[in-house]
Design a protein that fits this description.
- With 101 residues, the chain is α+β, with helices and mostly antiparallel strands.
- 49% of the residues lie in helices and 19% in strands.
- The chain is built from five helices and four strands, in the order αβαβαβαβα.
- The chain has helices spanning 3-13, 20-28, 43-56, 67-73, 93-100, and strands at 15-18, 34-38, 60-63, 82-87.
- Strands 1-4-2-3 form a four-stranded mixed beta sheet, with helices on both faces.
- It is globular and about 30 Å long.
């Protein structure tokens, strides 16, 4: 399975939120099933997200590209440092991310 294809499938068929604040909100409200972080996300923000994910037992996946690359994968004209998958839809992204850890 390809992570890019799975992210795009989750966006099209499921529910995904973009950005640091929306991701934090979904973790705190226990809605996130998976959190994807770009490789160049600032370290203090990365620490906050990963700490909360560990406490809430939510898997995280580090996207191998930059936030510009992640934004392009998501068909967004801006950088996406992090995103949270609330509903994977028809994608197998959660299984793929768990297998990558």
């Amino acid at each position: 399975m390809d992570i890019v294809r799975e992210i795009q499938a989750a966006i099209k068929t499921g529910k995904v939120v973009f950005g640091y604040r929306q991701t934090l909100k979904s973790i705190v409200n226990n809605q996130a099933k998976l959190v994807i972080i770009s490789s160049n996300m600032p370290e203090p923000l990365r620490r906050d997200i990963t700490k909360l994910c560990k406490l809430a037992d939510i898997p995280t996946y580090e996207f191998p590209g930059t936030s510009w690359d992640l934004g392009a994968v998501c068909n967004k004209p801006f950088m996406v440092a992090t995103l949270a998958v609330l509903d994977p839809g028809a994608s197998g992204i959660i299984e793929l991310a768990k297998g990558a850890q």
